Each structure stands twice: as C-alpha cells, then as structure tokens.
Amino acid sequence: IPVYNFGETGWTSRQSLNQLIDAIGDNQNPSVVIFYDGVNDVLMQCRREVNLLPAHDRQEQIQKALRRSSIQKKFLNFIIAPYISLSNKLRIQSSKHDCHINQAKALSIAKHLVNNWHTAYVISKYKGFEFYGILQPTLFTTKTNSEYFHTSETKLNLEYKIQYKTVYPLILKEIARYCESDKNFCSSFVNGTNWLDGTNNIFIDFCHINSFGNKVI
C-alpha cells in the first residue's frame, strides 16, 4: 500500500486539518486518512504566552518577523539588550506552560483537537475515505523506563508531565462526549497512549522514540 506522510515539524491537529483540505483541493483521493496528534497540541498551545487558539510552534517567531521596527527602537533595543540578558540569567525561571493552572485553556485545547478530528472525519466520510484519529503516546502515558535521561532532561519532563496529565484526560472526556451522539466517529478514534507499555529505553525525549519504537507504532 503506498503511504504518504504530509506531516511537518511542530504541527498541531489544525495544521493536519488544513493539509487534508489542501490535499483534497489538489485532487488527492486517499483510501485512508490518519491523524496522529496530541503531543504538539499540548506542547505548543499550553505555552504561557498563547492566549488565542489555535496556535502553532512558529507563531511567535512569525509575528515578531512581521512587526516593523523603527531605527530608534532598534537602537534602544541594542542599548538595553545586555541588561535584559543579565536579568534573564538572574531571574528564577517560572513554568513556560500554564495549562495546569488554566483549566479553561486546557479544556479549549482538548475541544479544538477533537473538533479538528471530527471535522476531518466528516470531510473524509463525505469524500469516501476512512478516517482515524490517533492520540499519541508520551513518556507520561507509558509504563516504561526513563532512568537513563540526563538530569536537565528529567527536570524539563516534570514540567511537561503536568501539562499532559492535565489535557490528555480532557481529550478523552471530549471524545466520550462525541461518542454519545456519533458512534461512527467514536469508532474512528484510536487511543494509542499505551502502545509503548513495557518497551524499555525507547524514548529519546518525552515523546520522540528510536527506530524500534517506531516499528512498534
């Protein structure tokens, strides 16, 4: 079976949905459409600076690049840059993500993900494609070893873990809510969060896996 991977680094389910629409517009007619989402929806959109959904990994960079900066402003930034750098070094770093303290935002992320999947399902059904939305496994949803991680990686994982422990259950609840009214969509959902249980030393970081892990998936 020929398989085409349309994914890109840092994509959330909204970019996947957009790409599906583009592919259909380009007269692509797959027999099966698979969305493999969850990790980026949480990681990218739980960032503290994200206030409006949907959001993606490069959003802040793009916004900064689009802002026109005057010569005076550039000069001022040049003058104060060393002080900002020193301040950042001395400042106690707070969490860069806030879904664990912003329940409304966490729920919105979950709803956006499931709604993107449902929209893709409806489009696929109309076009005669099969659709599957797979919720990705992470280190935090998998019973496996992680003792080999470096200390710095372990500290970072603690911050990430609380975000996934907050949002992933909300995604599952939202799926259950959809299942009550649309059994066919329910059968298109695949919970892959425990696919890597018992497979030791396969995580490169909290979500990326080695070649054996990819074979398991």
Any descriptors?
single chain, 217 residues, mainly alpha, three-stranded parallel β-sheet, 8 helices, 3 strands, 53% helix
H/E topology pattern:
HEHHHHEHHEH
Instruction: Report the sheet-strand fraction.
Output: 5-15%
Looking at the chains present, what oligomeric state does this protein adopt?
Answer: single chain
Main sheet attributes: strand count, strand direction, barrel closure: 3 strands, parallel
- Give the overall average pLDDT: 88
**Estimated helix fraction:** 40-55%
Tally of DSSP β-strands: 3
Number of helices: 8
> How far is the first residue's CA from the last residue's CA?
17 Å
Q: What characteristic shape results from the CA principal axes?
A: globular
Structural class, please?
A: mainly alpha
Low-confidence stretches: none
Return Rg in Å. 20 Å
Strand order of the largest sheet: 1-2-3
